[in-house]
Amino acid sequence: MRVTLLGTGAADGWPNPWCTCGSCTDSRRRGELRRPTSALVDGTLLLDLAPAPPPDGISLAGVRAVLVTHDHADHCAPLSLLARQWVRRAEPFTVAGPSPVLATLRPWLGPDDPVDLVAAEPGATLELAGYRIRPLAAAHEVPTVLYDVTGPDGARLLYATDTGPLPAGTVEAVRGAAYDVVLLEETFGDVTGHGTGHLDLRTFPDQVARLRTAGAVTGGTDVVAVHLGHHNPPAAVLAGRLARSGARLVADGATVEVRPGQAALRPGA
Ligand SMILES: [Zn+2]
Ligand SMILES: [Zn+2]
Ligand SMILES: [Zn+2]
Question: What is the distance in A from the centroid of ligand 3 to the CA of 9?
Fold first, then answer.
């Protein structure tokens, strides 16, 4: 499984273009831009419809299915589907998401556009474009699902944004999963009093620990922090803080290659 990070930033991106804080200034000085969070799996499966185009050189032409987590503007941008419609692609195409996502996208589809809208509710199992997909409950302000994705090669990914501390039922649902890669949100950095359905540098390590205890994260799991906002310390500092949880940062446009079973082969840690 090849997971290309199209964006690793929070809704406003990092740097926030309107902000002059130290963290945004550091990103700007180093020429580092984190777009709203989205990822492309094997060039085939798109995770979230971000409002920003992909990084340089990355095409979406091979995408057959899109999994949208929730109806917030940084994850459910209908203009992205309209751009596809404008090039009149004839292949079957499926968009899955909670019902508010489907309601937002439906008016943007053309009458002859071959797009299927599929409800993604916790507890269901979907088979799309050769992937087995289990939507899981999140803790966010609007109906939101996280996605447990198993690829045709057997590699397994957890896409977990946007959410606060994971619902107990979700941790139970992923018990023993031994994910090869986990993309877990960490929006707020050192701002812990945000009172939102997001994680920060206090609650992120707790969620990784819970997933580890449940056997969903193992010593072989590649844990990547996403949905990163400017309340985080500059990237060099943040990388060290995340490393304490066994997690890491990657740049927008980077590809994470995982071998199926790489996590199951290295239990513990
Ligand atoms: Zn978001
Ligand atoms: Zn800032
Ligand atoms: Zn959101």
Answer: 12
Is residue 174 within 8 Å of 82, Cβ to Cβ?
Answer: no
Over residues 10-27, mean pLDDT: 98
From the CA of 21, the nearest ligand is 2
How many angstroms separate the alpha carbon of residue 75 from the centre of ligand 3?
7
Q: How far is the CA of 72 from the centre of ligand 3 (A)?
A: 5
- Among 90, 120, 91, residue whose Cα is nearest residue 105: 120
Residue 153 tokens, joined: 């090669």
The ligand with the least distance to the CA atom of 227 is 1
Question: What tokens were used for 58?
Answer: 């990355």
State in Å: Cα 50 to ligand 3 middle.
12
Ligand 2 centre from 147 Cα, in Å?
29
Q: For residue 24, report the distance from its CA to the centre of ligand 2, in Å.
A: 4
Tell whether the model's pLDDT for residue 265 goes beyond 80: no
Q: What pLDDT band is residue 268 in, cutting at 50, 70 and 90? A: low
Compute the distance between CA of residue 217 and CA of residue 101 in angstroms, rounded to an integer: 29
The answer to whether the CB of 199 falls within 8 A of the CB of 163 is: yes
DSSP 17: T
- 95 SS3 class: strand
Question: Mean pLDDT over residues 2-12, rounded?
Answer: 98
Q: How far apart are the first and last CA of the chain?
A: 23
**Domains in the chain: ranges and CATH:** 2-257 (3.60.15.10)
